[in-house]
UniProtKB/TrEMBL annotation:
Regulation: Inhibited by UTP.
The protein, known as: Uridylate kinase
InterPro entries in the cross-refs: AceGlu_kinase-like_sf (IPR036393), Asp/Glu/Uridylate_kinase (IPR001048), Uridylate_kinase (IPR011817), Uridylate_kinase_bac (IPR015963)
UniProt lineage: Bacteria, Pseudomonadati, Bacteroidota, Flavobacteriia, Flavobacteriales
Any single GO BP term: 'de novo' CTP biosynthetic process
Annotated pathway: Pyrimidine metabolism; CTP biosynthesis via de novo pathway; UDP from UMP (UMPK route): step 1/1
Binding-site list for UMP: G51, D71, T132, G133, N134, P135, Y136, F137, T138, T139
Catalytic activity: UMP + ATP = UDP + ADP
CDD domains: AAK_UMPK-PyrH-Ec
Family: Belongs to the UMP kinase family.
Enzyme Commission code: 2.7.4.22
GO MF terms, alphabetically ordered: ATP binding; UMP kinase activity
Organism this protein belongs to: Lutibacter agarilyticus
Catalytic EC class: transferase
Chief location bin: cytoplasm
Amino acid sequence: MAYKRILLKLSGEALMGDRQHGIDPKRLAEYAEEIKTIVNQGIEVAIVIGGGNIFRGVAGASNGIDRVQGDYMGMLATAINGLALQSAIEAAGIKTRLLTAIKMEQVAEPFIKRRAVRHLEKGRVVIFGCGTGNPYFTTDTAAVLRAIEIGAEVILKGTRVDGIYNVDPEKHEDAIKFDTITYKDVMNKGLKIMDMTAFALSQENNLPIIVFDMNTQGNLEKVIAGKNIGTLVDK
């Protein structure tokens, strides 16, 4: 295996499947099986999930909701997604722990770095909810921050496209895919991989990012094995 401890970043929209909003149980079950496959190979897995399938703070702000309030609403949406993902992974037979940046002891543990690492060492999947716990920061930034804190070797950003392109491949048939790209080239080309705060934090800490298609069965296992799947962003 190319990696021992990874952080998987999933968007909230990924959980919608073919729906327009909410959570698709079929998609949840598919992700749980993919995660189970690599956990059974001894990989330590942490997950950060977004909340865009339920609520987006930025969208709320554009509709008159106070930005800070909206961001906290978005954080709670990630906790809902975390609970759903936890349920699906445990239904697949893998032990999990949900740790949140906002305290909600009845449903999750508060985030403590040493506790998170200990769970990983015991073979439990750790799901981080509520982003960083602060408004104005995205779950992309939370993913990079948590990955650094727990000593993850790589961030795997699961999307619905199979890597990074020079232009949007869903809009341009002549889009060119990058197998590897440097942080500097991403900045120079203005490619939208993560928000700039997250990307700068990843670059500063030499944390590689792999963008890949999470919806193709077996891709997660292939990425873990070091196969040329998706796009690697590194120095």
